[in-house]
Design a protein that fits this description.
The complex is a heterodimer of chains A (141) and B (113). With 141 residues, chain A is mainly alpha-helical. Chain A contains 6 helices and no strands. Chain A has one domain. The longest helix of chain A is centred in the middle third of the chain and has 24 residues. By secondary structure, chain B is mostly helical. Chain B has one domain. Classes of the chains: A mainly alpha (141), B mainly alpha (113).
Chain lengths: 141, 113
Amino acid sequence: MELLSVIYPGQVLFGLTVVLFGSAFTLSFLMRSKAEVVRPLRGVLFVILFLLIGTVAIEFSGAATPSYTFGQFSSLSEALSTHRWLLFQLPILLTITSLMVLTVYGEHIAHKHAWHYRASVIFSIAVSFASVVMILLESMV
Amino acid sequence: MPRHFKDRIHESLATAALLAGGVALNVAWIDNLLITRSDIIASWITINPDIGPISGLYINTLGAFFVTYLFAAAVWCAKDVSHWRSRVFWFFFTSVVIFILMTLPFVYGFAVI
């Protein structure tokens, strides 16, 4: 029971998101050589999207002070609060975009003509992974 | 016939998703810039005072994404969009880079006094 009072649900969801983005990042590189990875990748991205929405819902429902500092802050931590919330939009939007592209193309994404779409999915997952790691590092400041 | 339909790639939907992603990211950084520069816009966009302008910003961004997606999907529906492929990809790529740059606190907070 004491353990449950220490664990914060938002942090648990966000931690899971970071771990799953790591696996999605690895899977995304296999799309060209092994088209079968598209299905599990889509599954992982779906779970990530729900975790991201869950994290936002938990953080916003428990928010006591506005996240926007309007340039008036006393510490670096406060300055980065706005940046963290701005950056949080990136994985949400890019995951939705990747999911839509993967749903449309499926295993055909390994085809030669689809390199634009394959590149955009890999790029989206890489940028999303980098942004969640950045958010993690900023929240430690 | 059903197999033929299943094998068909609806490229217009994928292109519309990339376009929507790019437009939404541009809306997000422009919104953020306007919120920082104008108190009127900041108060107008604040849906929940506990969260601040971020609440309206998220809704605006998601709204821009889905409106653009539905509009582009309707316009490009059942059309050959292969000539848009490269242009939309580079627009999406550039939008992500611009978003990352324009949401850095020292960039959007910059002012010549």
